[in-house]
Amino acid sequence: MKTIDCIENRNSWVTRLSIVFVLLLTAHVNNAQTTSQLSGKLTRPAVYQAMEKVADWQLNTPLQHNLTDWTNGALYKGMVEWAKIADSSKYYNWLYQVGEKTNWQLGQRKYLADDHAVGMMYLEMYRKYHEKKMLEPTLKSLDWIMKHPSHASIKNFSYKKGNNCTDRWSWCDALFMGPTVWATMANVNGKKKYLKFMTKEYKATADYLFDTNEDLFYRDDRYFDMREANDKKIFWGRGNGWVFAGLAIIMTELPENYKERPYFEDIFKKMATKLATLQDSSGYWHASLLDPQSYPAPETSATAFYVYGMAWGIANGLLNKETYLPVVQKGWNALIQAVHLDGKLGWVQPIGADPKHVTSDMTEVYGVGGFLLAGSEIYKMLQ
């Protein structure tokens, strides 16, 4: 029996060693998937090359969501910023074809911020081509909302039928999807009424969801009393990424002398200060900002949005270059390491509302949008 036990023991160890070998090999393959052809250096040629590779992969990959969905809205915003830099017109052509397929319409739900995000791309295309068909549907929708504002409460968030809290910006993601379009519209047509509406609604959301002790946003009020495994508050990585990137877009559109501009700048700088302390040693941020041990995998959609916002802050004089450029450098290098050989961006958390586990093979269009926003802003910053 002892001999049999020894043989079984030995076989067990062989099996275990085999498993370890397979795991190591898998890790090696995953690492090999990330491209060695791209450089994480902050030089214009290197940044351009990385954006081109990721953008081309996306153009060759069929979209899985409705063309007016918020997921694609985030992608389009990144793609249009890249199109402004790219030597080829194919990116503008691709965006134009999207607009033609949607008839330049927002999503069907009149109040829902998620269905407004696509408007950012439409307005940028209008700026380039000056075709009224690109502007008028979004203008009509925003004007209708102003004439028929929702009086729904932003409290007691729920997706249940009959709860109309999402008719207003009652969740932090909405601060990327909605107010960015309102601020851009105000800049495009020169009418401040859109800024007045946007600021009022933004303040209502921020006053409710912004934790002044942590300088971070709760995803919605369901998370006020929830805690992570380490007993820390739950602050979702991409959720705060939506807010931080949204602030950069909003402030790009605000007039320098807009009386409420300091309000947005204050939140932006507070978030930047906090976020810089939460970047890990490899340059990534994680799905849960205050409990990375429970979610140790990289999360590139959050990382991309933070890199974008901080690069924008440096370029526009809101963030100290000596303090934040190393953060941007580490973050961009980390993003480059997540790009597969074919240009696919990995480590993107799937659609959700809170921290989730991520793998290197996971990707999504909003992650690509964030990557292109980050690269485009770094490219401009390097001027």
TrEMBL record:
Residues 1-32 form the signal peptide. It comes from the Bacteria. InterPro entries: 6-hairpin_glycosidase_sf, 6hp_glycosidase-like_sf, Glyco_hydro_88, PolySaccharide_Degr_Enz. It holds the Pfam family Glyco_hydro_88. One of its GO terms (molecular function) is hydrolase activity. One of its GO terms (biological process) is carbohydrate metabolic process. SUPFAM superfamilies: Six-hairpin glycosidases. Keywords: Hydrolase, Signal. This is Glycosyl hydrolase family 88.
